[in-house]
Amino acid sequence: MADNMVHRQQDQEYQRQMEAEQAQVRHRMSQIKHKILVLSGKGGVGKSTVAVNLAISLSLAGKRTGLLDIDIHGPSIPKILNLEGRKAQSAFDAILPIEVGANLKVMSIAFFLASQDDAVIWRGPMKYQMIKQFLKDVEWGELDYLIIDSPPGTGDEPLSIIQLLENADGAVVVTTPQEVALSDVRRSITFCRSLNLPVLGVLENMSGFVCPKCGEVTDIFKSGGGENMALAMSVPFLGRIPIDPQIVEACDSGQPYVDKYRQSQAALAFREAVTLLVGSNSEDNETNAGKEINTMRIAIPLAEGQLCQHFGHCEEFAIMDVNSQENCVSGTYREAPPAHAPGVLPQWLAEHNVTIVIAGGMGSRAQSLFAENGIKVVVGASAGSPEEVANAYLNGTLQTGGNICDH
Question: Which residue has the higher pLDDT, 83 or 289?
């Protein structure tokens, strides 16, 4: 009986300690307006490089920014920022982050290691405690953004940080164009959704090679895979970052790429991604902060690249994402439909998250099936390229005639 009472008291004390620590986390994080994770489904996609350059881009834009490296086993942020050998300092029971310039504060486990060659051999519980300490004991102060560089995959570190933050704005998922990376990214997006963490966007890294002599971009792997995957999974696409040898040079020398090469194509792509992120977290539009960009999806049946007048006889569909806030097409991909049979196309397009179908003609039965799947149908449109048809619809200038295929 006495042993049971002691165990209950210990459990209660442990619970009180956990609640007190979580309250400390909430207090620290309440001073930070936006918390964004940078994730990837696999290693080798340049995730840490992306995290650093996003943070630097935000700081150069005048945003007070923090950069937290929670890659416990392979911290690379200090190397990229030329902070190797720096040690964390403390004051008034708080850990002080390393400051870089006027608007950037950085924290990494590397600042606690005796040598940069030391290996951290920890299991999950110790990593969880370290990440909690980063949140509750680091004196971040008031920040506009905290960018969190997480190790690849869906393991202890990203799970811990999401649970500890409780209300992160969302995640930026980094991929490369190859299918082997894209399949892992799909799992990362599913991971985020299972934890109710919004996906703020997908960024396609290593998308094309920038020639150091002429500046021409060549798709040495392939391009567009990240955008098509983002469209298929209904998440925003933040852009493509080309391979630039100067990125490697900058990382090895510890000079932030977007600061050193501000007018390069990759630096401009980073700034565009930041513009989209800042826009989706704008304080002028708090209802959209931390949410996925609102999109509609239009499907247009095609024959020989033009709108097909007979819906059921099309060769392929142009599937177009529309940013509803900007009222413009944000991305397009084409896909061949399954074999035509009653009821197949409405279900197939619904699975592709299509919300509007624009066609020349369509039978009344097909229209009713689309309605049952929550898809609006516009018929009577004239032939034209999918871009012309979609833009005319969005601008309110699409001219429609009679339904030429009402059977």
Answer: 83
Q: Which two tokens stand for residue 392?
A: 């005319």
Q: Give the pLDDT of residue 37.
A: 96
pLDDT of residue 293: 41
Confidence band for 149, pLDDT divided at 50, 70 and 90? very high
Task: At 334, list the tokens.
Answer: 């084409």
Look at residues 405, 362, 395, 398 and name the one whose alpha carbon lies nearest to residue 382. Answer: 398
Of all residues in the chain, the percent with pLDDT exceeding 70 is 86
362 closest CA partner among 319, 322, 307: 307
Q: pTM for this structure?
A: 0.66
CA dihedral 377, 383, 384, 385 (to 10 degrees): 60
Please classify residue 199 by burial: count the beta carbons closer than 10 Å to its beta carbon, then call 0-12 exposed, 13-18 middle and 19+ buried. buried
78-116 in b/e form (b: 16+ CB < 10 A) is bbbbbbeeeeeeeeeeebbbbebeebbbbbbbbbeeeee
Q: How many C-beta atoms surround the C-beta of residue 399 within 10 A?
A: 8
What was the pLDDT predicted at 172?
Answer: 94
Q: Which residues of 345-356 are buried (b: 16+ CB within 10 A; e: fewer)?
A: bbebbbebbbbb
Q: Domains along the chain?
A: 21-288 (3.40.50.300), 295-395 (3.30.420.130)
- Pairwise CA distance, residues 265 & 258, whole Å: 10
Both tokens of residue 77?
């942020």
Q: What is residue 322's predicted lDDT score, i.e. its pLDDT?
A: 81
Report the distance separating Cα 331 and Cα 71, nearest Å.
33
- What burial class does residue 296 get, using C-beta atoms within 10 Å of its C-beta: 0-12 exposed, 13-18 middle, 19+ buried? middle
In this structure, the chain runs to a length of: 407
Residue 369 burial (CB count, 10 A): 20
Band of residue 295 on the pLDDT scale cut at 50, 70, 90: low
